[in-house]
Write a structure and sequence with these properties.
419 residues; alpha/beta; 2 domains; 6-stranded parallel sheet; Glyco_trans_9; LPS_LOS_Heptosyltrfase; ADP-heptose-lipopolysaccharide heptosyltransferase activity
Length: 419
């Protein structure tokens, strides 16, 4: 199942279940008369944090997880997520246990969800924090866990999911998401997020770093000044986040001519899309390599750490690089970069805010219908100039431009019966 199929099933099945369970859940709540005071009067013994989709969002939650564990060091902190994230999350010393759901098929989702609920109920969970905002599935899992207190986010105060929680926090999308996560942690007594606190990456082992070094020696078997990492990919929830392959090809061509090795990255399914950039380069691809799918997730962190610069669309790669002291340039459009990106003296972004941007996380179908005018305004010459400055160690102020028109075109039309 792709992400859009999961989203459609979540809305149809999840909505029906939430309506069906509304009255029984409210009746049971009245009968049990639990103490829902937060912060809890008695330190919780068992805490569950759930985030299923998006490794980037999970990384954004790591400061919150650390704060919760610091506040309640004796509590068992369990993370509920997809099976594909398990090994990655087990590397954190502040996470005690990881429970997983397999999303490879609808049948597997149902089977593993029932198994997970069967494990959660006997544990008598004190606090369940659901970090999914748009998922009814996440809300139902929090209810079925039978947790004493169930905390979640919402963009509004009343919807079909609201009754599934005991505490609902407004998600202010104008704030960086890591601060939103921090707010829900503060609700249960954890310390607020300090401005100096960055995202926490899983530390690679010495053997993984050595393995990556050996792979790089084989892949880039020529002299070079360093490795420029280019990520042209975005998830299927919003392909409009991609900058054009022609733009990435221009950047790759320029820096390979300057003596750098260029690595085009991605997951195994993205390898074919990445290869399209290699094909655009033709005879200029001598120092450019398609490494999509070459590294495991832990190895990929070690690989990024050994790079000279990362250039990426908004994606999980961006968040992975945020955990490291590696120069980074983000190319943003459908998502406001300040929501997830953390600019500093060695990280910056380019963002042209057209009338219809940001649209991701707000509408299912982008108003541009795939013609991502916000990303098209980013020029290869700009990207190359900022990359050169970052490579020289300069601090580059983020380029945020409000673009009121694009070729006199009206943007943001969601419905037009005349077409």
């Amino acid at each position: 199942m792709n992400k859009k199929q999961k989203q459609a099933i979540d809305r149809a099945v999840g909505y029906a279940l939430s309506i069906f369970l509304r009255i029984p859940a409210l009746i049971l709540e009245k009968i049990l008369r639990r103490d829902h005071t937060v912060p809890p009067r008695v330190p919780p013994k068992r805490i569950v944090v759930a985030k299923y989709l998006g490794i980037g969002s999970i990384l954004q939650a790591t400061p919150m997880l650390r704060a919760i564990k610091d506040k309640y060091p004796d509590a068992q902190l369990t993370f509920l997520t997809l099976q594909s994230n398990k090994n990655f999350l087990l590397r954190y010393d502040f996470i005690d246990d990881v429970l997983c759901v397999d999303d490879t098929s609808l049948l597997n989702v149902a089977a593993t969800s029932f198994r997970t609920i069967a494990k959660l109920i006997p544990r008598r969970i004190d606090l369940f924090i659901d970090l999914e905002v748009h998922s009814t599935y996440g809300s139902l899992m929090s209810l079925f866990s039978c947790s004493k207190n169930r905390l979640g986010f919402s963009l509004q105060d009343k919807d079909h999911r609201a009754f599934l929680y005991t505490h609902l926090l407004y998600l202010n999308t104008n704030f960086p998401i890591r601060y939103c996560y921090s707010q829900i942690a503060q609700l249960i007594g954890a310390a607020p997020l300090s401005p100096e606190q960055g995202l926490l990456g899983p530390p690679p082992t010495d053997s993984e770093s050595e393995k990556v070094g050996a792979k790089l020696g084989l892949i880039f078997d020529f002299e070079h000044k360093g490795i420029i990492v280019l990520n042209p990919n975005a998830s299927d929830l919003r392909y409009e986040r991609r900058w054009a392959r022609e733009g990435f090809a221009s950047v790759a061509r320029y820096f390979s001519h300057q003596g750098y090795a260029v690595a085009l990255v991605g997951s195994p399914p993205e390898r074919e899309y990445v290869q399209g950039i290699i094909e655009l380069l033709g005879g200029d691809a001598n120092k450019v390599r398609n490494v999509a799918g070459v590294f495991s997730l832990p190895e990929f962190f070690a690989f990024l750490e050994q790079s000279s610069l990362v250039v990426t669309n908004d994606s999980g790669v961006m968040n992975m690089a945020l955990t490291l002291r590696v120069p980074q340039l983000l190319l943003a459009g459908p998502v406001d970069p300040e929501q997830y990106f953390i600019p500093n003296e060695y990280r910056t972004y380019i963002y042209y805010q057209t009338y219809c941007s940001p649209c991701a996380h707000y509408v299912d179908v982008p108003p541009c219908a795939g013609d991502n005018v916000c990303m098209k305004q980013i020029k290869a010459e700009q990207v190359i100039d900022i990359c050169e400055r970052l490579l020289r160690g300069e601090s580059v102020k983020p380029k945020r431009t409000v673009s009121l028109s694009f070729n006199s075109e009206v943007l943001g039309v969601l419905k037009d019966k005349g077409q």
